[in-house]
């Protein structure tokens, strides 16, 4: 069997969902909402069920959907992408990242990844024949050392850096100054920056999201991956996209075609409606997520838990050092016990870190008030 598949494990996030389901725990591990998507999308879905389309869209995505995504992107970032040449609609950002890596990397290339990181990046890198090299973010405030980053980026064979912003699992939103450091190094060492910006609209004031591609010199070397999953609460629709300059996109289009042919055409048709939502939709989303974050983190604080305040995303990392036994903390065992005995599932933090960090666990809070409140009631039993 494939040697490559020896070098990464199954997703611990998805594994925790299976454990949560098997013991009936509230699933605060794999991030997805337990509330409905916007009613306008549900209604449009019902219409499209009768009107179609039901056959393949053109491989790179239905023309009206590509145009609508490019228009929405221009509205938020000011960047104009050509809907015929500079976008591919994918099956979620998961496909977007995988086919980007396959299109960019040669065997033996290296890819720089900040740690902690979303698990998929390691598997994507290895499946693309490349080798990940990790740059640690401080587990305290998730800052990075620019010299350590430069040392990694200037290693021979480095082809790209992966940037998840806002960042899963840390909840960090990279500032413009931090992005500038990364961008300047990418230009200096002639690297691509592959972004995962699926949480672009889940940012808590006063933090603000800056698109990497808007930094000077970055439009041509940024490959932006994003998705509709989080912004419109439709993780099961598997709709994402890649925005990049034409020479890069020509390669990506081929890999996309031979990998999946295309994303679901009826869902692309429905999603055009989402792309036409006005600014108030995004303001309400921001308010809703701020409410959920406040409810959950106030609850954790009241219970006396330590955690780092997220600036964006729907994740929070909690410190479980107080549960050490004889000085040892096993975050994997802790999460399994918590799911089985307390009835709340989280993801063991060590699955996100390259370094030996095992005192953190990741919760997500994209849940109805009653789910969050019940989870907090159960977490009281940890004490
Ligand atoms: N990004 C979400 C998480 O980290 C879920 C992604 C997935 O499982 N596809 O939990």
Automatic annotation (TrEMBL):
The protein's required cofactor(s) are namely:
pyridoxal 5'-phosphate
Q: Which UniProt keywords apply?
A: Aminotransferase, Pyridoxal phosphate, Transferase
Enzyme Commission number, as recorded? 2.6.1.-
PROSITE patterns for the chain: AA_TRANSFER_CLASS_1 (PS00105)
Query: Its Gene Ontology molecular function terms?
Result: transaminase activity
Q: Does the keyword Protein transport apply?
A: no
- Show the SUPFAM superfamilies listed in the entry: PLP-dependent transferases
- Domain of life of the organism encoding this protein: Bacteria
Give the Aminotransferase class I/classII large domain ranges: 26-379
Q: By its UniProt entry, which CDD domains does this protein fall under?
A: AAT_like
Q: Does the keyword RNA-binding apply?
A: no
The UniProt family comment states: Belongs to the class-I pyridoxal-phosphate-dependent aminotransferase family.
Protein name, please?
Answer: Aminotransferase
